[in-house]
Amino acid sequence: MLDEFERKIARELDCAIPEEKQRGVLADASWTSRIKERICDLGHRNGFVVRSEGCREADTGEWLFDLVWVDKQEDNDRFTGMPLAMQLAWGRHLTEIVNAFEKLLVAKAGHKVILFQRSSPNEVHNVMTVLLDRIKSFQPLAPDERYLLAGYSYEQQVFVYEPVQMSIYSHLIEMTRIFTPPWLRIQR
């Protein structure tokens, strides 16, 4: 289930699908700028400093990720948190999407968002399965990590969203299942 930030991000993304994209005549670079502008504006409305290239309203240029929201202290000199890290991966090859996504695995951000595109919702879900596997296998697992996997299906002209919340406890439960002999496992 999407949390409040993720719902706001999803609304902005859904509104960023222009008619030109639906007709297939909008280049990825132009669409990227529109998306960044909307997410940048959302960050400012929520009181964050925004860092991104190709976004007129960003406070500074890109830093580590395609777009980040930053918490800073009053003196605007001390970095105190990163509520959002976002990567956009419009490449057609799975390796391009995975490479962009793997940067998010190391981010210390409250929300980690990956945007990608595939032809069908089924292909979007296939990519999401690969990304979920990457999340589960990355160590160490940070407490209460949240990811928003957002895949655009250009056949259906919609974003498909998959929120993922991993906690250290869910990982320990998985570890318990692996190392507990079958005769000691509780059946549900």
Describe what is shown at a glance.
Helix content is 40%, strand content 25%. It is built from 6 helices and 6 strands; from the N terminus they run αααβββαβαββα. It has helices spanning 4-15, 19-22, 28-45, 94-105, 121-137, 168-179, and strands at 49-52, 67-72, 79-89, 111-118, 145-153, 158-166.
Structure, explained:
The chain is α/β, with parallel strands linked by helices and 188 residues long. 40% of the residues lie in helices and 25% in strands. The chain is globular.
Task: Report the mean per-residue pLDDT as an integer.
Answer: 83
Terminal CA distance reads: 23 Å
Structural class: alpha/beta
Largest sheet: 6 strands, mixed
Strand order of the largest sheet: 1-2-3-4-5-6
Helix content: 25-40%
Number of strands: 6
Please tally the helical runs, counting DSSP H or I stretches of 4 or more residues: 6
* Helix and strand run: HHHEEEHEHEEH
Strand fraction: 25-35%
Basic shape: globular
- Poorly predicted runs of 5 or more residues: 172-188
Determine Rg (CA atoms, Å).
18 Å
Q: In total, how many domains does the architecture comprise? A: 1
